[in-house]
Specification:
about 350 residues, alpha+beta, Rossmann fold, 2 domains, 8-stranded antiparallel sheet, 5-stranded parallel sheet, 11 helices, about 30% helix
Amino acid sequence: MNNLIENAGKTIVEICSQLKSYEKVTIITDKETAHIGAIIEKYAELITNQVYYHIVEDYGNRPLDFVPKEIKKDIRKSNITYYAATSKKGELQNFRGPVVGLATMSGREIHMPNINTKIMQTGMQADYYKIAGLTLLIMSIAVKSKTAKVTTLNGTNLQITLSRNLKWVPDTGLLWYRGVWGNLPAGEVYTCPESINGVMVVDGTLGDFFNQKYGNLEKTPVTIPINNSRAEVEKISCENNDLLLEFKKYLQHDENANRVGEFACGTNIALKDLISNLLQDEKFPGVHIAFGNPYPDKTGAHWASKGHVDGIMKECSLWFDDNLIIDKGKFVDKEILTIY
């Protein structure tokens, strides 16, 4: 077990961020995740002697609603910032987001909200050069396609129209250059769809903070009708009434919170099961769709939302135009299979 965690720490530092001996590093962690922060610190210090280490709780009670001046100071002089800490409700806008902004102004940022021992032992064991190859291959198919279709055995049936004016974004896990940031574990390619219609049945993981509270949704799936790229909130159904009411409320907290902002294909072929942790589950081979923020700075979308909630569907089948790429959760395209 310890060997897997050590290997993951080495992968984060040496492969995913490609730390150099002349670079400076800031590590931001918290009490719950300090064992992972310490592993990152260990491998960073084998390469550079300029490592600054911060534990979030040293600066106030969670959720933290500001970036402490000490952390700001170290980020601004660092080439790499590693964020490995639990995600607390309310911190995205006031703490985590600003950390990413500061880090990408001075260098690059490796973002790992809610990373845990299970992720270190699974998603971070991937061969990220192989993940990058598969991700870019899927992207090469996607950018040439005008439409996509997604179905699942549980009732998902979605028709997607794609736009050449909206960019596809590869998440390869190889974060080597100034100005870039990304989540680890990695492995997906996504865009903002031009339009999407049909029914989405979330029977895997529901993102944001829902997965922490409600876990796997296999026994209580959420059925979401989508019309002209917007969830029909009053028609959403789920047997878990608490989840249903909380989810509906989330989709109404601004004018675009119920609008589909992300259509994504997971490409981390090291993953064998969902673990009810969004950070990793959205990288699982298959499809996930998010309502809210379309990451306009990356996709080129001309609208925004303060929300972003991902829904992961199990055993997806995915077509780009008329080409079957994934069949019930397994990549089937012959060219893709050569990467396995």
